Amino acid sequence: MKERSVTETQSLEIESFISAATYPIRYIAKLYQIIHEERQREVVVQPSKARTDFKKKIVTRESSVMELRFNDLPVNLQLYIFSYLNAKTLSGIARTCKYWKMLSEDKILWENLLWTDLQKWKFINHRSYPYTYLETNSELTPKQIYLRCCPECQKIQQTTRNSFTSLLLHTLPASMFQRHPPKVVMFGPGLESDTHKLVQKLLWDKTISPATVDGMFPGEFEGIGSGVCLKIGGSKMNLITLYATNRAEREQNAREGRNRVSKLLAAAPPQPEADGQEDNDDGNDLRTVEVSHGVRLLCQNVDAFIYVVDSSAESQRVNIGDKELQAMMNNSKSQPRQPLLVLSAVATQDTLPLSCVRVTDMLQMNKLNRPWQVNMMCVENLDGLLEGMTWLLKQVV
């Protein structure tokens, strides 16, 4: 009996192997048969009574071709067809039937869709950075990660939350929510490169700027901290712009081809090099650089930061101000609650930019211990600026 059982088991295994090996051949043969085989169908035609032989039945034969249904295709081919669909369509066809729901939630399908669309997203923040979920070994599926990180899905969720919040706040007295306009510090190498016209257009170009100037205020800390009062929509903010050097020095450095030097920084005493510690591109250890005394006091009294970088693909200037960014964010006077908005700017619409996720990776934004968002924008028409400012104000108001 045991020998018979073993023989039957081996026979079944051989049959399964042969069936799997010959499946492509059998499928091609079936497909050929479905497409090319014509079956003759008999059709009985009743002649008109005007004819003399109307009592005789006429039998004709006509050809009919069998239809090829989507469910008759192999699963791999079905998934390949689904790979041409966008996220919105995939989410919609999941409601068609249980089988299509199973196909539309395929892990590899959503992984490919996530990495493809990620290169097209216009903004990424601390809650929509996919690598955060992957590095923490999250139990979320690729589809769930996509829906959490996708900008369009975030806008829909934000609209729902805003509707509830507006209804709730409308019933409460406005005096409970009155506060001083937030102070925001804007800095970064993007203020001194091809995108240097950002501040000028933001303050004075009324045709495209989402903000209007509502006054000015003086500096408080060693002459640092003066700025302008802005109105953006229904909100106000005090904007403080910090340049690495004055205009004359910036122009002289550009003419003579000198490296960028920032007066916002003050070199700290050198520290012994730790094992595995790497220097940045210009040979300076980021951990031995601190902001100046006046800037350190200013950081203690602001509500948010805006960091501007030139993200044109040709310039390769994204990392040119890493020391400033690290020093400002690691400053002991800077609080983790202070959000950071990175404006990934290009000068004109024709300038080829780096992707938003590429800039996020280069700046290592996921290592920050504060809310952050990277926004793509164009200085020529300020496209993308309002979305970034709106996010920043929501974080501090």
From TrEMBL:
GO biological process, one term: SCF-dependent proteasomal ubiquitin-dependent protein catabolic process
Listed transmembrane segments: none
Record's GO cellular component terms: SCF ubiquitin ligase complex
Entry keyword set: GTP-binding, Nucleotide-binding
Residue ranges of every copy of the F-box domain listed in the record: 67-113
GO terms assigned for molecular function: GTP binding; GTPase activity
UniProt keyword annotation of Cytoplasm present: no
InterPro entries assigned to the protein according to its UniProt record, in alphabetical order: F-box-like_dom_sf, F-box_dom, FBXO4, P-loop_NTPase, Small_GTPase_ARF/SAR
Record carries keyword Nucleotide-binding: yes
Name of the featured protein: F-box domain-containing protein
Originating organism: Nematostella vectensis (Starlet sea anemone)
